[in-house]
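ok, trying the design again with the full structure, not the truncated one.
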């Protein structure tokens, strides 16, 4: 067709997860792939009532344009909730965005020139790599373990990349590995960010989905120099289809993010902002989250107990204290993509997300992300047994 695309599009590729979700159309497939919240937990009745009330002539303003920063009543409710949970802020510190994903795009747009170095966990959230790609960054990945990003390695990576600009992290129940950054490491990460003048992009969509242990402070609450852009989302605690999230940052940073938001999409949906505000105002969202966590905790416990029982000992997996994922690590030369395509799907109709795509630089083949949230109990147990049986055949020396 002779279309001359911008250079930035060269790094933008189809996502392996999207391909995988297409397989999910087979009703027989037991998919541990998508990290979707459980639709049975959507507050359907409450939202139906709220939307019905909003869509009346007296509430016509909910179908009108509004401020690009977001409805003030929603920003107030978000700020109140964050403050209650230890991240002190006010309505003017909040920008309403279309899910956390937009926060990743806008922050990258704000700070990255082509070739700038972004520090990430290794592995990291694929959606972040997709969001950052058009800004043509280079990556400096940092090792993770059960306590999240290894800050000693971070220090080494910073020494090797003194000009690094952005550090992207999912500190709570990380996607894909399920691990959580310890308090000691949070403090050290902020110290290093200050020393190296980094912008820290703190992505927290799973933060409220904690099933055990106590909440750790957000990086934003530990931020002493206004370097943290804190991004949160209602996707996992209310419903992802509403596309509602927030960014909290220092005034100057937030102002610029707001200008980029205006350029990108003018504003988030007035109707969905009004509905989210009405939900937060009329119902106890914390109780709703607590109820959902009972369901997710049960799923996690069942998945981990089954994995303990059936997986060959040479396969390791993380023990998340919350969130939706555990991360499987197979022996070194195992190819998790090939195993899924050639064996697991055709013979057992079971799928996970092969881990390779979550690595920004060197794609380690021997991992998989497993989500336990979207599968009914009997199929979850059955699917993990089938996975383990085939692994046992495959891993025979
Ligand atoms: N960050 C992480 C780590 C995620 O896992 C997701 C969604 N799965 C998002 C951001 C984006 O979610 P949303 O835009 O729906 O808030």
């Amino acid at each position: 067709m002779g279309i001359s695309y911008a250079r930035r599009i060269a790094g933008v590729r189809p996502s392996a997860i999207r391909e995988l979700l297409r397989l999910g159309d087979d009703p027989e497939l037991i998919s541990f792939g998508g990290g979707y919240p459980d639709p049975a937990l959507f507050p359907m009745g409450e939202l139906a009532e709220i939307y019905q009330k909003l869509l009346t002539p007296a509430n016509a303003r909910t179908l009108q344009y509004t401020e690009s920063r977001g409805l003030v009543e929603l920003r107030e409710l978000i700020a109140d909730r964050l403050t209650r949970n230890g991240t002190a802020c006010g309505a003017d510190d909040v920008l309403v965005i279309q899910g956390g994903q937009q926060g990743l795009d806008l922050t990258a747009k704000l700070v990255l020139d082509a070739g700038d170095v972004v520090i990430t966990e290794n592995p990291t959230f694929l959606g972040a790599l997709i969001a950052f790609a058009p800004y043509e960054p280079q990556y400096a990945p940092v090792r993770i373990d059960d306590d999240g990003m290894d800050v000693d390695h971070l220090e080494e990576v910073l020494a090797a990349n003194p000009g690094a600009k952005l550090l992207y992290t999912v500190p709570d129940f990380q996607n894909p590995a399920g691990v959580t950054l310890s308090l000691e490491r949070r403090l050290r990460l902020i110290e290093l960010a200050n020393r190296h003048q980094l912008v820290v992009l703190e992505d927290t969509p799973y933060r409220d989905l904690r099933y055990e242990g106590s909440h750790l402070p957000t990086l934003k609450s530990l931020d002493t120099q206004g370097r943290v852009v804190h991004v949160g989302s209602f996707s996992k605690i209310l419903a992802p289809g509403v596309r509602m999230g927030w960014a909290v940052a220092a005034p100057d940073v937030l102002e610029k993010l707001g200008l980029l938001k205006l350029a990108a999409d003018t504003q988030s949906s007035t109707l969905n902002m009004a509905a989210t505000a009405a939900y937060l105002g009329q119902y106890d969202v914390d109780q709703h989250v607590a109820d959902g966590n009972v369901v997710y905790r049960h799923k996690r416990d069942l998945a981990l107990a089954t994995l303990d029982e059936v997986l060959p000992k040479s396969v390791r997996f993380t023990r998340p204290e919350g969130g939706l994922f555990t991360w499987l690590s197979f022996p070194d030369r195992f190819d998790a993509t090939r195993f899924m395509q050639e064996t697991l799907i055709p013979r057992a109709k079971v799928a996970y997300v092969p881990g390779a795509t979550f690595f920004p630089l060197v794609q380690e083949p021997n991992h998989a992300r497993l989500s336990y949230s979207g599968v009914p109990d009997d199929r979850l147990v059955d699917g993990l047994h089938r996975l383990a049986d085939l692994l046992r055949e495959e891993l025979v020396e």
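Keeping the full-length input from now on. The chain has two domains: 7-43+287-394, 45-282.
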